[in-house]
Design a protein that fits this description.
Layout: H1 3-17, H2 22-25, H3 34-51, E1 61-70, E2 77-86, E3 90-97, E4 100-106, E5 111-115, E6 118-121, H4 126-148, E7 153-161, E8 164-173, E9 176-182, E10 189-198, E11 201-215, E12 218-228, E13 231-243
Antiparallel strand pairs: 1-2, 1-13, 2-3, 3-4, 4-5, 5-6, 7-8, 8-9, 9-10, 10-11, 11-12, 12-13
Helix pairs in contact: 3-4
C-alpha cells in the first residue's frame, strides 16, 4: 500500500475498531442506587418505545447502504459501505475508500478485515464491532436487548449535547461501557460517549445521531457524526435501509487464515 492508502485504511480501522485496551480505559461508573437504576430503566424503555417498541423485535436483519467521510490531518477520505447486519452480533461490511476495498466481518465470536493484500484478524477488538452493531440507526440493537430485559443501565443526570438538553444513562455490555444521551421530548438517542484507542493512544469519542425517519413503523437515524477528542472525525449518511433481507450465511464464513492480528 502507499503511505496515503495506509493512512486511509488506518483511519477507517480507528473509527470502526477503536478500543484496543478496553479494560484499562473503562471510566469509573457512579455507584448504582435503586433510584438511578429505576430512572435508567425508565429512560431506556422510553427510548426503545420511541424507536418502534415491540416492532424492533421482528427485525432480524438489516441491509444498509452508507456514504461517509473520514476527516484527518492528511486530508479527508470518502467512503461507501454496504452493510449486512444480523442481530444480535453479526455484521458484514463492504467498504470502498477511493480505489481500495475492505471487507470487515464479525460473526459473533470472531472478527476480521479482508484487504486485497490478505486477511487481518481483529478478534481482539471484537467489542468495537459489537458496539457498531448495537448502535446502528440510533441504538436499535441496544433497544432490542432493553425490551427483552437483558440490558439495563443507570441514570447519570442531564447534560447539553450540541446546545440541547439531554438525559444520560450509563450501560455496559459485550460492546463495552457506553454513556447514552437522549432527548427528553422525543426520547430519541442524541449521542453516545465512549473511550477508545487509536494509533496514538486513548481518545474520547462522542457519536451523535440525527435525521430520524420512519421505516416501516420504526424510527431510524439516517445521519451520524463522530467527534474524537473534540474534533470532527467521521460523518456519514444512510442512503437506504432494508428490513429483514435474506442473509447469505457465507458472508460470515471465517477465513482459514487471518494474520496478523490487530494487536500486533
Amino acid at each position: 500500500m502507499t503511505k496515503r492508502t495506509r493512512f486511509r485504511a488506518n483511519l477507517f480501522l480507528a473509527a470502526a475498531l477503536a478500543g484496543l485496551i478496553a479494560s484499562a480505559l473503562r471510566a469509573q461508573s457512579a455507584v448504582t442506587t435503586p433510584e438511578s437504576a429505576a430512572r435508567g430503566k425508565e429512560v431506556l424503555l422510553a427510548a426503545a418505545n420511541a424507536a418502534g417498541g415491540e416492532k424492533l423485535a421482528s427485525v432480524k436483519t438489516l441491509g444498509i447502504n452508507e456514504s461517509g467521510r473520514l476527516i484527518g490531518p492528511q486530508g479527508d477520505a470518502v467512503l461507501n459501505v454496504k452493510w449486512m447486519v444480523s442481530y444480535p452480533d453479526r455484521s458484514h461490511g463492504e467498504v470502498t475508500i477511493g480505489n481500495q476495498k475492505i471487507v470487515q466481518v464479525c460473526d459473533g465470536t470472531s472478527a476480521w478485515l479482508q484487504f486485497a493484500q490478505g486477511i487481518r484478524d481483529t478478534t481482539p477488538v471484537i467489542s468495537e464491532f459489537k458496539r457498531g452493531i448495537s448502535l446502528f440507526g440510533g441504538g436499535w440493537g441496544i433497544y432490542r436487548e432493553v425490551l427483552a430485559g437483558t440490558l439495563t443501565g443507570q441514570f447519570i443526570g442531564e447534560t447539553e449535547i450540541d446546545g440541547k438538553k439531554t438525559v444520560g444513562v450509563a450501560i455496559e455490555g459485550p460492546f463495552g461501557p457506553l454513556k447514552l444521551y437522549f432527548y427528553p421530548d422525543t426520547h430519541l438517542l442524541a449521542a453516545a460517549r465512549f473511550q477508545s484507542a487509536g494509533e496514538h493512544g486513548p481518545s474520547d469519542n462522542e457519536q451523535r445521531w440525527s435525521d430520524y425517519r420512519a421505516v416501516e413503523g420504526r424510527v431510524f437515524a439516517f445521519s451520524t457524526v463522530i467527534y474524537r477528542d473534540g474534533a470532527k472525525f467521521f460523518e456519514s449518511t444512510i442512503q437506504d435501509v432494508q428490513l429483514n433481507p435474506a442473509v447469505d450465511e457465507s458472508l460470515f464464513a471465517k477465513p482459514k487464515a487471518a494474520v496478523p492480528s490487530a494487536s500486533q
